[in-house]
Amino acid sequence: MKIIIAGAGAVGTHLAKLLSREKQDIILIDDNEEKLSALGSNFDLMTVCASPSSISGLKEVGASEADLFIAVTPDESRNMTACMIASNLGAKKTVARIDNYEYLLPKNKEFFQKLGVDSLIYPEMLAAKEIVSSMRMSWIRQWWEFCGGALILIGTKMRESAEILNISLQQLGSGNNPYHIVAIKRGNETIIPRGSDVIKLHDIVYFTTTRKYIPYIRKIAGKEDYADVRNVMIMGGGRIAVRTAQYVPDYMQVKIVEQDVNRCNRLTELLDDKVMIINGDGRDLDLLTEEGLKNTEAFVALTGNSETNILACLAAKRMGVSKTVAEVENIDYIGMAESLDIGTVINKKMIAAGHIYQMMLDADVSNVKSLTFANADVAEFTVKADSKITRHHVKDLGLPKGTTIGGLIRDGVGIVVTGDTLIHAGDHVVVFCLSMMIKKIEKFFN
């Protein structure tokens, strides 16, 4: 598959590295040679110094033969222009990174497709939605809904109070449990578990279940004493913070602490009166205490500096805040954030990459998501008639090692899958696998 990525910024380089491991034909273009020189020699991809919005530049890199053209420069209008030119030259599918929510409205989809932009991606909005999902319940690290919430993924850390420690999954599953354990993150290792695996203290365990059984998961995870989130303090007033404040449920009270006075004035224009804007340094613990940090259930650090966000969350934890969320854009720091027990980590590069990755797949996939802490992906496939996945019970499918089926949605109803489940055409099936294995799973759904 020939993939051209326009823009060697944070999202573009992360995507290029990710896809180069897949043995795809990757060309990364940017008009800044310095950004490209750091990449070319270390990864199996080609770099070209050219303007992403230049017709001659796109002709030079062979946009006419591209199966997928991805424009992820920081400039929205440049991305749109690059996609239009690439599409006009003959690129089969185009994706543009944007920062205007209006473009994503369903009524505008056909308009952009006619212009040659097949898909739009807004990483900051996706990150904000993930933050709000993780804050709905203070005891979870990650929350993801499939088919409007018919099936739910919950990631939570095992403490001493968990009821399911040191018991094999085989024993846990003997009573037809209303959940499925799909992944375990232990230290630096990610496990797609088998029956003989055991849950240990400090593991991050990923469950799939239906909404009805969330209180049951909370009980067995030993998290019943965690306070519900009512008050939220956000450090940093950037675009992710604005979207987060707009998406939080009405029952949550939000305060944003922003150092730049001009940005504070802009925030008061962008957000309604129920969001309190505080001009000050979010690293100033006296200020945060004065503003009620000790009575806050969730603290979200969204400055442009990963180290600041990690340290601020650490300080908030020490002051008794039960739920902390840090934006960590430096991927090397994600492991450190976990070892310091930060809570939820948001990385918009990984979120964006998961959404773009699904466009490479031939099967009918509506969701691809990277689990931020774990080296694993989750994908939601729609089952085609006569596909391989429908021919045998799950236990006899011969799924590759490192993959598991977490559940399915049939006629709008979430079902936890067992070895004896038979999958039907039209089912939405949620598959978990170690990173970059989705391509191996895809053949079961074609």
Automatic annotation (TrEMBL):
This protein's record includes keyword Cell division: no
Alphabetized Pfam families for the sequence: TrkA_C, TrkA_N
Keyword NAD: yes
InterPro entries: K_uptake_TrkA, NAD(P)-bd_dom_sf, RCK_C, RCK_C_sf, RCK_N, Trk_Ktr_HKT_K-transport
RCK C-terminal domain sequence ranges: 141-223, 366-446
NCBIfam families (UniProt xref): PRK09496.1-2, PRK09496.2-6, PRK09496.3-2
Annotated protein name in UniProt: Trk system potassium uptake protein TrkA
Limits of the RCK N-terminal domain: 1-121, 229-346
GO cellular component, one term: plasma membrane
Origin: domain of life: Bacteria
One GO MF term: potassium ion transmembrane transporter activity
Keywords: Ion transport, NAD, Potassium, Potassium transport, Transport
